[in-house]
Design brief:
Oligomer: single chain
Distance between the termini: 60 Å
Structural class: alpha+beta
Strand content: 35-45%
Order of helices and strands: EHEEHE
C-alpha cells in the first residue's frame, strides 16, 4: 500500500512595503548593518536617502517582503541599537 504524503497547505504571505527612518548612534555609524540585515532576512531593500557623519547616521530605507519578515528585520535593527521610525506616506516617493 502506498503512503500518501499530506500536502501542507500554507497561506500565501502578504507582501508589503515598509518605509523607515533608521537612526544610527555614533558607535554604529561604521557598521554595515543594512548589508547584515540583507544577509539575515530575505527582503528587498532600497536606500532612498542617507545622511551619515562620524557622529550620526540617518537613513531613509524601504523594505519589501512578507510583513512578518519585515517585522523581524525591524526588531533586529532595534536589537543592534538602531532607532527605527516609520516614514509617513509620500515623504520619499
Amino acid at each position: 500500500m502506498q503512503k500518501r504524503l499530506a500536502q501542507k497547505r500554507t497561506r500565501p504571505r502578504t507582501e508589503t512595503r515598509a518605509k523607515l527612518y533608521l537612526t544610527y548612534p555614533k558607535k554604529l555609524v561604521r557598521e554595515p548593518l543594512i548589508y547584515q540585515m540583507s544577509r539575515k532576512f530575505d527582503l528587498v531593500f532600497n536606500v532612498r536617502q542617507a545622511s551619515v557623519s562620524e557622529e550620526i547616521g540617518i537613513i531613509a530605507l524601504e523594505l519589501d517582503g512578507p510583513e512578518d519578515v519585515i517585522d523581524a528585520a525591524i526588531a533586529w535593527f532595534r536589537a543592534q541599537g538602531v532607532t527605527v521610525e516609520p516614514i509617513e506616506k509620500n515623504v520619499i516617493e
